[in-house]
Q: What sequence folds into this?
């Protein structure tokens, strides 16, 4: 389903991804990299709205069985090229967050990195589906921007309702056991779109 703030999300992301350059870079998100040691090689991992594939391909390189989806066929095609260049296999799909299948209790881990195109209604559905698709004992690795990011303008949507607070994440993921919930600031160098001093939040949570 389309978001009122992004009335044609597929066209928007296709346009952003149409150049040969990887706009978020080819390296994984740093918060994800820092916590990858929590994932056991061979585990089944889902990357939500993974764009050009930087996170899913890196996780596959760590010996994980990775599935990923994105709304943009242009982005997914670039992700497939990135996986081929890295010599890894990722099961990529073209789908939005509402139309992906979300199998119940199927994944050992879910990575949701800067999935902030979602308005509050879509976000509620998305977060519920993330909880649903995790196996018991499954791990969620989530990173996003906080409202203070509106001051920095170094990435993310300039829409307050799309940004994350600790209270929002605690409420949305009340069914999970939160191991880490950290609001912090850091310099990001993730391509041209996440670049500069940034107001961030990271969460690690596990399904009981």
A:
């Amino acid at each position: 389903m389309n978001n009122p703030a992004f009335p044609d999300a597929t066209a928007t992301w296709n346009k952003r991804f149409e150049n040969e350059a990887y706009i978020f870079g080819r390296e994984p998100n740093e918060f994800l990299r820092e916590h990858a040691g929590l994932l056991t090689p061979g585990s089944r991992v889902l990357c939500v709205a993974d764009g050009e594939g930087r996170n899913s391909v890196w996780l596959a390189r760590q010996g994980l069985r990775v599935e990923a989806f994105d709304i943009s066929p242009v982005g997914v095609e670039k992700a497939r090229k990135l996986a081929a260049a890295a010599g890894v296999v990722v099961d990529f799909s073209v789908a939005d967050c509402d139309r992906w299948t979300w199998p119940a209790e199927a994944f050992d881990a879910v990575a949701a990195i800067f999935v902030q195109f979602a308005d509050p209604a879509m976000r509620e559905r998305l977060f519920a589906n993330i909880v649903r698709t995790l196996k018991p004992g499954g791990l969620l690795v989530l990173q996003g921007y906080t409202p203070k990011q509106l001051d920095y303008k170094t990435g993310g949507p300039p829409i307050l309702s799309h940004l994350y607070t600790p209270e929002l994440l605690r409420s949305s993921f009340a069914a999970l056991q939160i191991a880490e919930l950290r609001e912090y600031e850091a310099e990001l160098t993730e391509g041209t779109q996440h670049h500069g001093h940034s107001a961030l939040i990271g969460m690690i949570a596990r399904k009981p």
